[in-house]
Amino acid sequence: MRICYFPDVDLPENARPVLTLGNFDGVHLGHQKAMDLVKVRAKALSCPAAALTFEPHPVSVLRPEKAPKRILTPALKQEVIGEMGLDFLVIVHFTKEFSRIGPEDFVEQVLVKDLRVCELVLGENFRFGRGRSGDLKALRKLGERHGFVVHQLEASIHKGAMISSSRIRESLRGGQVDEAGAMLGRPFFVEGEVVEGDGRGRTIGFPTANIKMDGDLLLDDGVYVTDAVVSTGSRGASTERFSGMTHVGRRPTFGLEERTVETHLFDFDRQIYGAKVRLHFHHRVRGTVAFDSAEALRAQLERDRETARAFFRDTGRNLVV
Prior knowledge:
Blueprint: E1 2-5, E2 18-21, H1 29-45, E3 49-55, H2 58-62, H3 74-82, E4 88-93, H4 96-99, H5 103-114, E5 119-123, H6 136-146, E6 149-153, E7 157-158, E8 161-162, H7 165-173, H8 177-184, E9 188-195, H9 200-203, E10 209-213, E11 222-232, E12 238-251, E13 256-265, E14 276-286, H10 294-315
Parallel strand pairs: 1-4, 2-3, 2-5, 3-4, 5-6
Antiparallel strand pairs: 7-8, 9-10, 9-14, 10-13, 11-12, 11-14, 12-13
Helix pairs in contact: 5-6, 7-8
């Protein structure tokens, strides 16, 4: 997949892509459904399959105080979209100036003049242009004028309600990683670098890798069943996978209020400072608890580890493929 930064879009000469547009935070099942249809239509028309997204998130520019925490960092979003099999990803640098473009000008300048779209694939709630004043009805009329077709997708549903990035964020804030994973179509994951911690885990028989997170930490405090992809060496040349469990949040047993991410890898005892780790979250074991002693914490961690091992054993999800 070729990544282009608008307006430098390097489309083949005379090519008219099939395009979907959105913020695509999380690249959830609804987004994937749109991209799958883009590929089907592009194949039928022998033209490029493309997506257009905005960075940074428009709300972070227009109303920073209400900006949502990101499910995926921009780099991880690009990676996941890349796995969808599209030909192009167009990234628009979203600014206050760009937000002032009206619906007709957006269509004429961006979709028609610069991107030369032949078909659009969009969800029923899609809005565009200044103040989100353009809708699918307006877009269809503009398509008739400029020679492109608009396909409306039905919403993707999970447990009777529409899948959305907002709903996934809500699930993650509640620690419901199972629900988030069901809507994402894969386990929720985060990435970060292993940094030196205070070594408390090792003193009670549970050494941990302390992860300095890339991006936002959406998850509620607690202990989770996880697996980890550990990348070491030059540019992550060596990759290994380990099942384990991860604590997210404060450590009240030791009076520590800073929120951290610490993962305990099963059957693993090496120093991996500087390694890149991708953590996949499968299930929440429990919330964070203040224990009376380090020994009480150790005993609970033994039970947590057995719960995590049983999860992998019973579900057959030993490691993410």
